[in-house]
Amino acid sequence: MQASRLSSIALAVSGVGLALHLYTVIFKAGGELSFFLVALFLWSCAPYAVGAGLSWFVRTQVIAFGAVSACLVADAFMHYSVFIAPKSSTAALGLIFMPLWNLVAVGPLGALLAWAVLRMRGSRANAL
Q1: Which residues contact 78 (CB under 8 A, 6 or more apart)?
Q2: What is the pLDDT of residue 77?
Q3: Distance between CA atoms of residues 70 and 110, nearest Å
Q4: pLDDT tens-digit series, residues 21-43
Q5: Helix or strand (DSSP H, E) at 95
Q6: Whose C-alpha in 54, 89, 120, 127 is 20 to 30 A from the C-alpha of 113?
Q7: Residue 33, Cβ neighbours under 10 Å: how many?
Q8: Are 77 and 101 in contact (CB under 8 A)?
Q9: Which segments in the chain show pLDDT lower than 70?
């Protein structure tokens, strides 16, 4: 089965998200590789795994694209707020809680936004 273009884009966005978290674990984390870092990496990749799984089904490709795109934006912001411009000493806790926020809020909101844009675009095309 050949993946559609949108599915490929969603998988590529998921790959960028995985690369961001791999970079964080390898280059930004202090110390040697530990069980905690591996678990943090796997936990951080969970939203992208869900999005990649959804991208394989034709009916959910738009939802998957919206979810992984929103998660990538949120993760990039969290990376910035933890490593580039931290505002407090507890900023790093965001790395632990961001995957949960991605799974229950950011991803679903991104999916909803992508679905709404598709619906609006479809209704305009039908009106012409």
Answers
A1: 94, 95, 98
A2: 97
A3: 5
A4: 999 998 888 778 889 999 999 99
A5: helix 93-101
A6: 127
A7: 11
A8: no
A9: 1-3, 123-128
- Residue where the block lists tokens 């969290």: 78
Domain that holds residue 78: 5-127
∠ CA 27-31-32 to the nearest 5 degrees? 90
At 29, list the tokens: 């984390």
Residue 85, token pair as written in the block: 């411009």
The stretches of 3-92 forming alpha helices (DSSP H) are: 5-23, 35-55, 61-79
Buried b / exposed e along 85-97 (16+ C-beta atoms within 10 A): eeeeeeeeebbee
95, 22, 71, 62 alpha-carbon torsion, rounded to 10°: -160
Cβ within 8 Å of residue 99, ≥6 positions away: 43, 44, 46, 47
Work out how many domains the chain is built from and give that number: 1
